[in-house]
Amino acid sequence: MNILILHDDLPPDARTDELDVFAQARAIGAALDELGHAWSTLGVSLDMQSLTDHVSRDRPDLIVNLVESLGRQMRLAHAVPALLDVLDLPYTGVPTEGLFLTCGKVLAKRWLAACGIPTPAWVEASGRASGALFECGEYLSGAVDGGGPAACDRGTLPGRDTLPGRDTFPMRDTLPGRDSFPGRDTFPMRDIFPIRDTCSTWPAARASTSRAGPDAFRPGRYIIKSVWEHASLGLDDDSIITASSVDDARRAIRQRAGKLGGEAFAEAYIEGREFNLALLDRGERADGPGGLRAEGLAGGRVGGQADRRADGSADELPMEILPPAEIRFEGYAPTKPRIVGYAAKWAEDSFEYHKTPRRFTFPPEDVPLLARLRELAARCWVAFGLRGCARVDFRVDETGQPWVLEINANPCLSPDAGYMAAAAQAGLKYRDVVERLLRAAVSARGSSSDARTTG
Questions:
Q1: 192-209: pLDDT as tens digits
Q2: Listed residues 222, 251, 269: the one ending a domain
């Protein structure tokens, strides 16, 4: 195939995290050489007409989309797959809708909460405060620095009817942009909100909903994050603040917004362990909604075994959940925040860079936790309509409750990145990952063509 690798068009003074895309492009190009494909690269700027003219003229067989920003604005990243959709060109990675939902962290958190996936409480710049709820109606105030749960009313899905009594949701509400199920207007509730009977082990494992408003705020420690920028831009020890009111949080948001790309929000700080789960498309679209069941992954992949459903059936999930990684905070003083900030990822001469190794081996007592993380990661894949590759970042609090921090639909694919380390743990070479991404793009193109034909 003739393959075009798209990447950000960057100035000479670009940051280290931005320049990493060139390392990814080189590594993918080398893998394409091994696979026998012709390839070229193209930097993409805000001049979308130039991109249109280039691909219309050359008509590559497939696009490898590494674009993370346009004009160094990450909020515009979804414009590239949107244009490729219009031009009817197959491309690797998450489709337009999934990329749009995951690029903005606040929008992603709203969607997580609406889908019953636990995510820490947060405060937006507008003052809107949102908190996670147990399905049984208990506020997860443990998200805010260890407070105990307080009773409250059952929550509702934002903009939706309450959960009880609903067996299905409209397809367009649950799987935006998914075209794997031509002719289906609804999706089984159990597939998008899988609720397992494990409350004795996981007090908060049931599907959670969220509420918003002043009464949703709980005082405690918060971390100020960028709404749009990724790569932990602007994240450091000073990002952790103590807020006794929404106004305190809003004040901190305003003070740090300039370092965080212009827009920020406050997220309840979870004291505990940090995990990354990498997911890789199997390269084949599911045959129907049964293929997207995400519950019951206790028997899922633990290095080398296929992800299977809880009932032991052999049909596989549409993605492979690579071995979980935990980030260790070695030698950190008790008062130093245990966060993976910008220095830990990119400043090679920093304490944080050298003292945050990842590990892939775990003691037997972590098996139930790892199963829960896999389950939640699979639910994220389904709920956001992901494809190709993705990474789900978690914090696990002191009670053992996992919280989804964010979903990275454009994980770094550099050979030394965490994603590729997880792939290596699964026995995959770099070229194997690239081949799977190509297969997923081709398969998605076939499903899309079938949907248009039958429609």
A1: 333 333 232 333 333 344
A2: 269
